[in-house]
Amino acid sequence: MNQQANTLRSGPDDRGHFGDFGGRFVAETLMPLILDLEKAYSDAKADPAYAAELENLNTHYTGRPSALYFAERLTEELGGAKIYFKRDELNHTGSHKINNCIGQILLAKRMGKTRIIAETGAGQHGVATATVCARFGLPCVVYMGATDVERQKPNVFRMKLLGAEIVPVTAGAGTLKDAMNEALRDWVTNVDDTYYLIGTAAGPHPYPEMVRDFQSVIGEETKEQLMKAEGKLPDALVAAVGGGSNAIGLFHPFLDDPSVEIYGVEAGGKGLQGEEHCASLNAGKPGVLHGNRTYLLQDDDGQILEGHSVSAGLDYPGIGPEHSWLKDAGRVNYVPATDEEALDAFQMLTRVEGIIPALEPSHALAQVIKMAPKMDKDKVIVMNLCGRGDKDVFTVGKILGFDL
Amino acid sequence: MIETRIDRRFAKLKAEGRPALVTFITAGDPDLATSQAILDALPEAGSDVIELGMPFSDPMAEGVPIQLATQRSLAHGHTMDKTLQMVREFRKKDNDTPIVLMGYYNPIFVRGSAAFVKEAREAGVDGLIVVDVPAEADDELCIPAIEGGVNFIRLTTPTTDDKRLPTVLANTSGFVYYVSVTGVTGSAAADTTAVAKAVTRIKSHTELPVAVGFGIKTAEQAEEIGKHADGVVVGSILVEAIRTSLDDNGKATNQTQAAVTEVVRSLRVGVEKARK
Question: Which residues contact B147 (CB under 8 A, 6 or more apart)?
Answer without folding.
Answer: B114, B117
